[in-house]
Amino acid sequence: MLQVNFIRENKDLIIKRLAKRNADFTTTIQQVLELDESRRKTQQDLDNILAESNLLAKQIGELFKEGKTDEANSLKAKTAELKEKSNLLKDQQNQLQEELNKNLYLIPNVPNELVPNGKTDADNEVVFENKLQVSLDSNNQLPHWELTKKYDLIDFELGVKITGAGFPVYKGKGAKLQRALINFFLNEAEKQGYQEIIPPLMVNEASGYGTGQLPDKEGQMYYVNEDDMYLIPTAEVPITNIYRDVILKEEDFPIKNVGYTPCFRREAGSYGKDVRGLNRLHQFDKVEIVQIQHPEKSYETLEAMVEQVKSLLNQLGLPYRIVRLCGGDLGFTSAMTYDFEVFSAAQEKWLEVSSVSNFENFQANRLKCRYKDKDGKTQLVHTLNGSALALPRIMAALLENNQTNEGINIPDVLLPFTGFNLIK
């Protein structure tokens, strides 16, 4: 959520930057400023009444001491009137604050100046591509949904029977390969100084608002009505909310957490060939890296997190590219995002496997996650996260790109976790 002071001081710049998202937020921003002006005026009136009430209280005390009871009681009647006015102003203040928050929740984060203009993912900017080539002969060009059936690795039909489409069942070496990837990603994060977290898989409404999934993505999350809780769409939500309503010290930076969790997404509106097999699921596994960082170092940290994800893909031997998302494809809470896409030789398409984002202080303002600077002033932190990595499409690319006449080769870095180097 944007800070009102920031909007007040940078109105034109914010409107211009938000235009990168192909939307005009002028009206909403103007409403925010008008509501804030009314709220501040109401607060001033409240402060004046409080000051007057305090003055009257002193006068009443002195009058009673002097034995002037009638005059004191007359002033007490006036303080009762002031109290009634004060209560009315407090109600008005609460209503204004509630309306202000509703409008602030509608405004997305301001894109960084480096975010390219564009409307869809077709307008994203490719900033890096490794030159690894994968060539499959005509006998080995099966998509992963056929490979998993051939080698009995994943049963999509069984998942439909048990739950529904988008909930696959991993079996045998398929399950072990999945676990191997999780362990590999966690171990690599630990080497980079991340502390592992095993968070809850359900969060309350406050956590959803804290990281920006609510109200923006309410329809995309699974909701447990009886308990008023949400299944997590990513480990980002519970891990980042660890720091909700926390005041940190400068020496605490950087805070680095990593967590493996299942993730749950309704994926409402998804259809067609892009949902086949592992390409788009309702339940999937992901290792997430989260950092809480000093504002002056957040973009340096963003680049370091990008390098970390690059290292994982290099070690797995997968062809990939990095794109900087354009304004029209940028997530609601992000100021800048890099997406990683691996190339599937069998499907002949790029598959997104990671998003690494800097939210600047947008989430922190909702979370009230702050730190005290050297002068003792309280400031908002910057938050960042990234997939390192999301497993379904990594699994898909590994199976498709490494198929041979003998079977499916396993990358060397995974052998300590799998115990086998070939699926046959």
Protein described:
The protein has about 425 residues and is an alpha+beta fold. It contains 13 helices and 18 strands. About 40% of the residues lie in helices and about 20% in strands. The strands form five sheets. Strands 1-11-12-13-16-10-9-4 form an eight-stranded mixed β-sheet. The protein has a three-stranded antiparallel β-sheet with strand order 5-7-6.
DSSP E strands, number? 18
How much of the residues is beta strand, in percent? 15-25%
Question: What do the pLDDT scores average to?
Answer: 95
User: What is the C-alpha radius of gyration, as a whole number of Å?
Assistant: 27 Å
- Count of discrete alpha- or pi-helical segments spanning 4 or more residues: 13
Shape: elongated
Sequence-ordered SSE layout with sheet pairings:
Layout: H1 4-9, H2 11-18, H3 26-65, H4 69-104, E1 125-129, H5 144-150, E2 154-155, H6 156-162, E3 169-170, H7 172-191, E4 195-196, E5 202-204, H8 205-211, E6 223-224, E7 229-231, H9 236-240, E8 247-249, E9 255-264, E10 283-293, H10 298-316, E11 320-324, E12 336-344, E13 349-358, H11 362-367, E14 370-372, E15 378-380, E16 382-390, H12 391-401, E17 408-409, H13 415-418, E18 422-423
Parallel strand pairs: 4-9, 8-14
Antiparallel strand pairs: 1-11, 2-3, 5-7, 6-7, 9-10, 10-16, 11-12, 12-13, 13-16, 14-15, 17-18
Helix pairs in contact: 3-4, 5-12
Throw out a few tags for this protein.
424 residues; alpha+beta; eight-stranded mixed β-sheet; three-stranded antiparallel β-sheet; 20% strand; elongated
